[in-house]
Amino acid sequence: MSRIGVFVCHCGENISRTVDVERVAAYAAQLPGVAYATDYKYMCSDPGQNLLKKAVAEHQLTGIVVAACSPRMHEKTFRKAAQAAGLNPFMCDMANIREHCSWVHENRDEATAKASDIVRLMVERVKRGKVLEPITVPVTKRSLVIGGGIAGIQAALDIADAGHQVVLVEREPSIGGHMAQLSETFPTLDCSQCIMTPKMVDAANHPNITLYSWSEIESIDGYIGNFSVTIRRKARSVDEDKCTGCGVCMAKCPQKKIPNVFDRNLGLRTAIYVPFPQAVPNTPVIDREHCLKFKTGKCGLCAKACGPQAIDFEQQDQLVTEPVGAIVVATGFDLYSIDRKPEGSSIEGYGEFGYGTIPDVIDGLTFERLASASGPTGGKILRPSDGKEPKQVVFIQCVGSRAREKGISYCSKICCMYTAKHTMLYHHKVHDGRAYVFYMDARTPGKCYDEFWRRAVEEEEAVYIRGMVSRLYQRGDKVVVMGSDTLVGVQVEIEADLVVLATAVQAQPNADSLAQKLGISYDKYNFYSEAHAKLRPVECATAGIYLAGACQGPKDIPDTVSQASAAAAKVMTLFAKDQLEREPIVARVNERNCVGCFACRKVCPYGAIEEKEIRDRQGNLIRTVAHVNPGVCGGCGTCQATCPSKSVELDGYTDEQIVAMIEAL
Amino acid sequence: MEHDFEPKIVAFVCTWCTYAGADLAGTSRMQYPSNVRVLKFPCTGRIDPVFILRAFQKGTDGVLVSGCHPGDCHYMAGNFHARRRFAAFRQLLEFIGVDLNRLQFSWVSAAEGGKWVEVVTELTERVRAMGPMVEFKELEMEEHWSGKLDSPELKEAYQNI
Predict the structure, then answer these.
(1) pLDDT bracket for residue A356 (50, 70, 90)
(2) In the CATH hierarchy, which top-level class contains the domain A4-127?
(3) Does residue B161 sit within a domain?
(4) Over 80: is that where the pLDDT of A455 sits?
(5) Which of A105, A192, A246, B8 is 20–30 Å from B114 (CA)?
(6) The CATH number of the domain where B14 resides is what?
(7) Rounded to an integer, what distance in angstroms lies between the CA atom of residue A253 and that of residue A303?
(8) What are phi and psi of A222, to 5 degrees?
(9) Contacts of A659 in chain B (CB under 8 A)
(10) Which one of A105, A603, A606 has the shortest CB-CB distance to B34?
(11) Is the domain A334-506 a CATH 3.50.50.60 member?
């Protein structure tokens, strides 16, 4: 006989404003199987939880329904409270009357009726609940970090310093990411390379870090504590063990005029190359698309010049499999392109800015390369078209960002600050030059940020014009910028030598396909979703996977580093235990009914279905039935819906529970 | 607004995408008709077509089945199995005389609170316009055809064989 307790929460006023909570509690008390029902202002608070624990003892409750917020919010909280009261935690369920009811309906009668219905359904579910014992699984104390930018490097270093093995995977030939491309960083104007390259070297030399550069994630299997990651090590055509990084191969390569993507195509590189001189690892890669040996079969000058004979034209991609217990995703961002709408993209280009056809219209990252001492111009600000020093530079902010009509409604967060920095860098290098900035709003929250911006405006002579630019076009060797000054209410026309666009921060173009491999969710802009916007900002909803940096949303360097260290701390928390308790939501086979058709095995995404032989006392094989390996089962329940003889059942979501809920509709 | 008929709608959703999407609609304080009751499953792959039949039999006027977009399944492929299963099931349902406009399949991700509102509102309004689900009640009445075997005419015919 069930004795269910129903606890209806007011959530301050969040629920009680539209739902008559007293009435819901009074209704619940009438339901068959309910022994006790009450309401309280904040069920999740300490007194609320104590009330629940007391009621369990006083009324000998066998199960609990908490009618409050989403189970995604507080299921764990109340299951813990139930456990503390001596109940099995899985005999506690939540009726979601906030997100699914009080917040989405205004009519009090309708909302109260719906809340009562939701409670009734959940009572039927808990009445048929089963006591489940947590499953313990071992934890592999090694971590995977995907992405070798500042986020990935910081996370990898923190985890490695705590004494755990880290596998760091980077898609490009060198780690460093976008931060390695920057010239100087706000708000201190210290040189990005100077603070970044030592960290890159630390990561590569750390005894606990295995670095796979020029590698990508092929596939990921498993679950928290027990992932198996297959990594594709792309053919470098250079033996990393033999190469000394002397660079003779690059000097000999006859293909010298390939645009260098690292320099935003302003500089040139050879077909065998490292993207920049401080690259880590300092091992070149052969770009097979441009290499004469691969294109024509002739050449091979690099191989002849290489002393240690590290060049290997025959090298193939290699797949390596690494067991890990936790994954930090730190894949960073990409920049919005003003080109015509790329195929498959939801983003419109900027026709009014010439769709990227005017050579002296560049983006902020390209300006970073121009200003960088290790950049293609050696740190001189020279414009791309004719290499002249620009005397009038126009910076345009919010290009793509906060532009709903172009498909992006968010703020890219970093552009106000880096544009202020650009005006300063420009002013420091071209003393007689003038920097204009078109802006919508100057958003500069952050430590020493607003002071920095004010310095650009007040001391470094940047001319800030509040308004947007309507058109850019070429007149002679100038770029004419037509815009409006909305504070003064006049049209503005500036003949610029160079225009720099603060283009929006976007997710990486293939962010969705990686998310699908990982089984994590992402938003409509393909930024990865955290488990909770405020309280679990570095964890994914998928257990054992953590987020760091701009792959989750636009972020500056201090925020990225903070989040990376936070993700590392989460990994260390996980690794502090030898055994991990996981939810016992797994499938179970009724061996008496199973006919051994193994339809379940065909649909199981985890390969959790094994064959089990049933033998008689003499050892003769009677039949073979399915058996679920509970350590491997992910708990999706696809087997149960597939089984023709209804011989497999998913704990926590049994047919009995579900049908009872449907009957109670 | 007062309506003559308030349809009963049930939504079978997966916990990872659509349930979270419905949560997001709540967090964003979007508004939609209160007719829907949500049943949470780990994955759309867990949803047995029998549940849909059962819901219709129990007087539900409209059913929504919603999960993760293709490729986004938390369990890799559960939604694909669900899609296959329901493609076949729809034909069966049509064969037994259920108007397929009462059954809606959709993909709503955890980020698509707005889409959840759209899908639920559209289904509710559509089913409201269709009126109550009576097909199963009629079927239930027809099921008593077996009682006709006891008719005197049949008995006579049987005895004459």
Answers:
(1) confident
(2) alpha beta
(3) no
(4) yes
(5) B8
(6) 3.40.50
(7) 10
(8) 95, -160
(9) 51, 54
(10) A105
(11) yes
